[in-house]
Amino acid sequence: MKGALSHIKVLDLARILAGPWCTQNLADMGADVIKVERPGCGDDTRSWGPPWVKDAQGRDTRDSGYYASANRNKRSVTVDLASAEGQAIVRELAARSDVFIENYKLGDMKRYGLDYESIRTINPGIVYCSITGFGQEGPYASKPGYDFIFQGLGGIMSLTGERDELPGGGPQKVGIALSDIMTGMYASIAILSALAYRSVSGQGQYIDMALLDCTVAVGSNQAMAYLLNGEIPKRYGNAHAAVVPYQAFETSDGHVIVTVGNDAQWRRYCEVMGRPDLAQDGRFATTSSRIINRDALVPEIARTMRERSCGEWLASLEEAGVPCGPINNYKQVFEDPQVRYRRLHEQVRRSDGGTVPVLASPLRLVGTPPAYRRAPPSLGEHTDEVLSTELGRSKSEIEALRCRGVI
């Protein structure tokens, strides 16, 4: 079965996470993604181990798990962009591509003759996506930056972490590279939108993606609240600004999440806790009153929740229809029956005979589902194949390019 994007060819000059995450989405849906990397070292994240991907004999390879998380279903080609011959090869590939994506520093692509204006002269229909920290224009445009910086600058860390007045209070970054991941997701949407427009207009276009823009955008309701009333949102740790109780509680052997979304659920929760006094207390009877009186209510709930184990609470709360859940580590995640049923973990065979685990795509199209055709490629694994089949280079020409250090 062909993928939804099997008619699309993507030339991928992106590294680290945001760009590769975007192109992995496209590759999962069938696009032919050619990943262009530096000879000898490749994508920076290849060396971000341990852990390392294993070969068929169980030995560590040169590729990290970090790299493998964002580069399946792609073909790897090594090209020296600093050389005129390398630039010419990339232009030839771009002339045959639908999408060009890069995340180089501002001005690098123009210096190489690989900027949008140069590429569209040879391929007017190209959808060209640039990913940078701050965008192509503005006072910060030339600054470098990584995910952590944008979580701080874009407001996410001001909302993440325990309240300042409580033990352990203070800003925290999210445990994954959220700014990178969300920029990759937004870039996927932008590219698909541009391709859809091209299908009716015949016109390609330029896409300017910035980590800062995407980080501010995912502020969502919290950012909107500030724009509406001018009040700076506060950190609530594992609690919720507008719903109580809606947080994690310590039990006798761990923690359980309880999310009471309405007054009916609140009454059932009180029944399960054996605390009719809380249900009958006028200070806690409604959603609004529980918010106003959270400082009196939460300690009472917390005291009661410590009296039973996680398993006991989860069983009784689920039976009563009170939304709840555990806080799983990743061992528990991949042992969870729903996660196993949804097959959120797959194994893909490498060209050396070994296998590598991959996280399954959550995109579940019934007619054209994602497929895991290729393991994350080793550096330059497909250089000869791509130069031969895509550009018609002979074996002797390819060997000459390799001898000159172009590939």
Give the secondary structure arrangement, pairings included.
Blueprint: E1 9-13, H1 18-28, E2 32-37, E3 52-54, E4 60-64, H2 65-68, E5 74-78, H3 84-95, E6 99-102, H4 108-111, H5 116-122, E7 127-132, H6 147-153, H7 156-159, H8 178-201, E8 205-210, H9 211-217, H10 220-229, E9 246-250, E10 255-259, H11 263-273, H12 276-280, H13 287-292, H14 294-305, H15 310-319, E11 324-326, H16 330-335, H17 337-341, E12 345-349, E13 355-359, H18 383-389, H19 395-403
Parallel strand pairs: 1-2, 1-6, 2-5, 6-7, 7-8
Antiparallel strand pairs: 3-4, 9-10, 10-11, 12-13
Helix pairs in contact: 1-8, 8-9
How would you describe what is shown here?
The chain has 2 domains: 9-218 and 340-403, 3-Layer(aba) Sandwich (Rossmann fold); 246-326, formyl-coa transferase, domain 3 (2-Layer Sandwich). The strands form 4 sheets. Strands 5-2-1-6-7-8 form a 6-stranded parallel beta sheet, with helices on both faces. Strands 9-10-11 form a 3-stranded antiparallel beta sheet, covered by helices on one side. Strands 3-4 form a two-stranded antiparallel sheet. The chain is elongated and about 85 Å long. The protein has helices spanning 18-28, 65-68, 84-95, 108-111, 116-122, 147-153, 156-159, 178-201, 211-217, 220-229, 263-273, 276-280, 287-292, 294-305, 310-319, 330-335, 337-341, 383-389, 395-403, and strands spanning 9-13, 32-37, 52-54, 60-64, 74-78, 99-102, 127-132, 205-210, 246-250, 255-259, 324-326, 345-349, 355-359. The mean pLDDT is 96. Helix 1 (18-28) crosses helix 8 and helix 8 crosses helix 9 (211-217). With 407 residues, it is an alpha/beta fold. This is Crotonobetainyl-CoA:carnitine CoA-transferase CaiB-like acyl-CoA transferase. It comes from Paracandidimonas soli. GO terms for molecular function: CoA-transferase activity. Keywords: Transferase.
